[in-house]
Batch of 4 targets.
Target 1
Amino acid sequence: MSVLIVGSTALDSIKTPKAVNPRLLGGSASHAAVAASFFGPVKLVGVVGEDFPQRYVQLYKRHRIDLRGLQTLPGKTFHWAGEYEANMNNRRTLKTELGVFETFNPTLPEVYRDAPFVLLANIAPALQHHVLNQMRRPRFVAADTMDLWLNVALPDLLKLLKRLDAFVLNDSEAQQLTGEDNVFVALKKIHRLGPKYVVIKQGSHGSILSGPQGLFICPAYPLRKVVDPTGAGDSFVGGMMGYLAAAKGPIDRHIRRAMTYGSVVASFCCEGFGLQRMTRVTRGQIDGRVKELERLTRF
Ligand code: AMP
């Protein structure tokens, strides 16, 4: 089954203590779509400007991502610039230039509207609503967000939460949304806002699911070297949704393994700048790391 993914399609300029890389392919939807593509068909919804390099279109195509929902408009591609501190965890946004995203108001291709799995990756909640409004009867809808939308679009985000099956956010966003430092109390409070499944990401400490079957603690893959963590959260949720869409049977039977796959795909994302490492990974390498995680966490 296919996954429809909407989010940002961006050029990212990333600075770490070791290197500077301008205008890499980035954006929440790009990272999530490549991650999901290891498991099954992906339909991308996004917009780029006339400056979007052709080699990035080819990259999407190599991952067999359906691009009928990717528009090119006059103007500039969304550009984000960020800088990491030496610990590679703290990040500062240097620039956010919305470009063609400012006026993006997509009409989905007819063939997109029946996609059973929908991932509303990080982008303005109004756009997430707009895309969801055009879907016929999705089986499972998940969304991600970021602190910016909690600050500037909270009413839209709260409305969106009532329409979701799963909400995925990181620990600082959960704290900001609920006013709770304790992650387990925060999970309970977020359920009350709507979603049946809530996943809180904790970076290199893994993630926690709260759902109908209770809690699941998902480990992060132990990486010794992080080159660039940009897009790790998007890769996590993209991998998780891709795995779920490919699995047959009830969500509850697969969601724990789906998160573990998401966690492993995110680990590969951190090993290269932008999507550089991800585009060279094989399904066999992903399965190998999942097996390792199983060994590391069994007792
Ligand atoms: P993550 O590291 O998972 O937080 O995601 C980083 C990605 O989010 C980058 O590829 C950026 O292009 C994208 N991004 C940054 N700011 C925004 C924004 N305001 N809206 C949508 N995507 C963004």
Target 2
Amino acid sequence: MRGSVSARALRLASQLPSVCSLPDSGRRRLLPPGRAAPRTDRAGSSGPAAGHCGPSLITTPIFYVNATPHIGHLYSAVLADALYRARTLLGYEAKFATGTDEHGLKIQQAADAAAEEPLKFCSKVSLEFRTLFQQSLVSYTDYIRTTEERHKNAVQHFWCVLRDKGYLYQGSYEGWYSVPDETFLSESQVMERKDAYGNLIKVSIESGHKVEWTKEENYMFRLSEFRPMLLDWLKKNPHAIYPEKFQHIVVHWLQEELPDLSVSRQRSRLKWGIPVPEDSTQTIYVWLDALVNYLTVAGYPEDHNCWWSRVHHIVGKDILKFHAIYWPAFLMAAGLQLPKQICVHSHWTVNGQKMSKSLGNVIDPMERFSVYTADGFRYFLLRQGVPETDCDYYDDKVRKVLNAELADALGGLLNRCTGTRLNPDQIYSSFSNHCFPKSPYVGHSSRATAEDYKMIQLVEQLPLDVEHRFEKFQIYKALEAINFCIRLTNGFFHRHAPWKLDRTNAEDCCWLDTVLHVTLECLRVYGILLQPVVPALANKLLSRLAIGPQERDWRHLNFLAKYHNNICLFEGRKLGPDTGLLFNRLERTDKTQSKAQDNWKMMKIQHTLK
Ligand code: MSP
């Protein structure tokens, strides 16, 4: 069954927009061995069955608390959230962790600048991230702060393991250090540049951030020993880092020599961090501290194997080296399993420019929610964000995408088939096999056209295609495929113009109900598939269709059961209450921007008054 579904899937997939073939080893990444593929056959039930290969852990990077959240941060978080939601809808057990990175020089300096005690400063900004995630429906199951005691225990334990296995030694470090990147750099990684006052300064070639010369006694990690093992890992796991382009970048980096890594700083210079066990003169390097957060949330150093067997990290391209070189090397040294996959995304620019405080172009997502809604904003980021390449943000683009796809195509379709004019009884209409026979060529006087059959085939295929897209970290392509089918369904509806049919004529009436039924079934499938991306909007859509909370996972995707001569659970049901437009059309950008700012100011004033 599974084989035949896949074969058909791949054949039909070629008819959906820009669908390419899947790398074999990546194909069932969301389907662990033994877990049956969700069946798209007509028999009705499907879904995660008997087999089980252990739960998985999905993580975002933990966010620095030196600045307030912006759309780049939210992008990392909603990508991870959508993957997590899809996994659970597919029937897997999963845990989803996010949180804040609170130690290091950068944070120490930011707290000093704000004249606040570091922990108090961190708590304030950490809460801003938490609030953003709650408002944007990021459904994390664990929120970690590196200042928590459980994390300190995990980091110090991890340090002792590396030390006891002989991977740490005391040495003298001399070189460049970038505080904004919290990273050490060699001579070849820096260049000279003039600052705003015309002074010559050294900056990191990669980030452009100013570097300073550092010379101190500290602990070194034997990173150089791991170069062959890292290369071997990537060779044996060609999809360990995804999209492929980033795997090539890492392999390229590994062609060069890999120097040992300084993993502590003198405590006299860096107080805001976790002390090295049994050496109070040293503080653990903030990246080693931060990376261990992934183990902390898995339960380390206590029993963590359950969550550590399938780990998926979602990270931005700027922190690839830390996740794809340092982290796997630390894990190898500690004798722990490596992540199953590191999913990398590119960056958002704003109106063609890098987002930066000094340019004043940082986009505050919460400000935009008041106009676009959290779901609308999530949809935009995931629909337009392409992990392989940088993407540009501008408000007019958001307005156009949301109006065309959520307000008009999806919302309009729902309106039409649930409106009282065409659906006066407000029910999930009946399907007639007589009007829409399974085979178009058996002599019925069917009104269904070849295009209708094609649409049905494609909507049937859609769940598997969407699942594959999620596996491949191509959520934008999953949304492209859903949107393509929504357009086909709109075409179907217009082609048959049900508003022209005569309800007093039995044949017309039967066909009208069938057209409505097919449309409602399509909408049900789109609603289920859109849940990981727009959870509140999908809930509104499914509630209007009277689809209960227990009927919304991948198992319930058996599309158009009646067409296949099976029982349809929804037929004849009273529709859910009409709670208004699914998504309100947005005004032009200039108005949109000032409206967002006005709404935001008003919310802040109200908040302050409280
Ligand atoms: N604290 C480290 C991560 C430690 S994980 C063990 C860090 N934090 S960050 O706050 O600077 O970045 C968090 C995430 O936001 C990263 O994935 C980063 O790529 C992402 N973004 C920051 N700016 C971005 C854009 N302009 N566009 C898209 N994402 C970007 O790094």
Target 3
Amino acid sequence: MRRKMAAGNWKMNGLSAQLAELDSLGADHGSTSCDIVICPPATLIVPAVARTQDSPVSIGGQDCHTEIKGAHTGDISAPMLADAGASHVITGHSERRQYFHETDDTVNKRIVAAIKHDLVPVFCVGETETEREANITFSVLDKQVTTGLQDIALEDLSKLVVAYEPIWAIGTGKTATTEQAQEVHQFIRSLLEKAHGSGFAESIRIVYGGSVKPDNVAELMSMPDVDGGLVGGASLDAVSFSKIVLY
Ligand code: PEP
């Protein structure tokens, strides 16, 4: 049985006062059977880690650089996130791919860096609306998954989480239907099986992201290959994120 995961991506939202949301989240879910991860902006990682020390909430970064250190103004490396107390990191989010020109190859290097520094990579993949309409969703995802995970040894991938995030569903209020989500999650699992065998594929969590809200979460999570959610907007409010955790 794969343990469910609810990960919140706060994106570029949140000043110190936002950290209060973590208190109620932690208090609500003392004994939950779902892993809870919040990825606040980098400025809040250290206080967020301190604030969640006695709570089931883990803290993650929203991206990491391919390199450990160097002349990369504005970037953050995997060891810096680990040093700040983060346990997870989102890699390959579509906003990073779209606005910061991240590619399947550089996402692969980010995943390698994350694993090397003991961070759980939450590896995002997903097609655009145009790609879905052109019926190339599976080939787009095949390339993203295959290149994103290339040359990474099986033993290094045990903690991997894959997030299927159809780009047309992110922040739009449009959600994939349960059938669309299940079909793609099953396809991604088949790619993992082809690469590393069925034991591995069955153990890896594939979470869904794209306008997950309290009122659509139960339906999505009822699908056999949907192992949780990566949540943007609805993770900013502890009441609504709690409902997603508890669905
Ligand atoms: C996201 O940014 O990863 C996301 C899924 O956002 P939203 O839930 O707001 O669509």
Target 4
Amino acid sequence: MVERVGPPVEPVPTPAVDRPPRDYSGLVALARATLEANWAQEHTVPSRTLYPHQWSWDSAFIAIGWAHLRPERTWSELTSLFEAQWRDGRVPHIVFNPVVSDEAYFPGPRFWGSTLIEGAPARATSGLVQPPVHALAAWHAYRRAPSERGRAALGRLYPRLVAQQHYLSSRRDLGGAGLASIVHPWESGLDNSPAWDEPLAVVPTEEAVPGAYRRRDIVHAAAAHRPTDLDYARYVALVTAYRAGGYRDEDLADRHPFLVECPLFNAAMGAAESALAQIAREIGADPGPHHRRAARITTALVDRLYDPRTGTFHPRDLRTGRLTPARTVLGLTPVILPDLPAEQVEAILAEAGSSRFGLAARMARPLPSHDRTAADFEPLRYWRGPSWMNITWLIRCGLLTHGHPRLADGLATSMIEAVATAGCHEYFHPETGAGLGSPAFSWTAALLLDLLAET
Ligand code: 2M8
């Protein structure tokens, strides 16, 4: 029987393991310099070049890093993001900085046209969302640097975090089974994961003729390390379809070509309820409804997205009703749910420890984002193989929650070593640890600080 020791937001002290102590002071200085350089008055850009605005789940991870350096920025980061929350409760995946030109990022504010939409804020945003890791991050950051000011900020954020959950669990429950659906791969945060290949294949691209727009990402990063032009054509087509309906969610099941229940997105939604229960207790609100909702989401996730034949979680494509076949790192992420049944925890441990992902107490290579043994594993291409800090951090939290500190430590160390060798890159080659994407990426720096605080 697996010992359960509480929600993922309550880090379990990591016992000493038999590896030589290392001096990480240079690494801490690098992480601090990266975050300082990316700070933009009230939020932090993920990268000055590739992503010069505010991104939703980036801000959540970045807020954790600021708790180690300047806790007031934790609250500024989250507060500025939630100031752009739409009236329906959605937290937009990009909040555009008005002083940055429209051409600096594609698709920019003109393309999204959010300010024409009733219920959207005055500040231009995208119309999509990202995994709701914010309650978990807010609670984690608060626990890292508790203060009266922090508690007051938590109190102000709480109703907004609740509204975010309400939006997802009502308007986005398109399958009617208690899970939220994503309407675009960008909403998963793992944009070009092989998990989306099957549902994306049927998205018509004629509305987004390649060449009708200019990709900015491949000006700043190698095209071979980014999504393909065909991926972008489909991304653009999906935004165009959602935008044409005013970003409304009514009747999406009848008209939208991409509707998927994602294991990470829904695990984040469940973990958010557990974190909200902790926050509620801290600020004198009732944790009970959050505990009940967390339990319901976990049950729905296991019922809908766990496949006993593969022993892992898969996204469910609502257009076909089927689970998508790829075995990606998304399948491991429900381990962040504190009340995940022991059977699924054991299955995740088996999948993670297999040659597909290589999780171990001592890991020569960091955790990949896709099955290393799969024919479509691409070690350089973004979310189709490379290793990422935020996924490492989330899965480590889950391993601690479910009583596996040595595995958690092995996972963290493999990623720390990659950053120590390559720098605060956006992602890392899963075989060599070489740095890929942006060389000064904020969530890598932020979560590195959090890992080092326990190492
Ligand atoms: C990536 O996604 C954006 C679109 O949202 C892009 O490729 O332009 C993803 O890695 C996503 O998870 C991340 O939040 C964003 C900013 O770092 O970049």
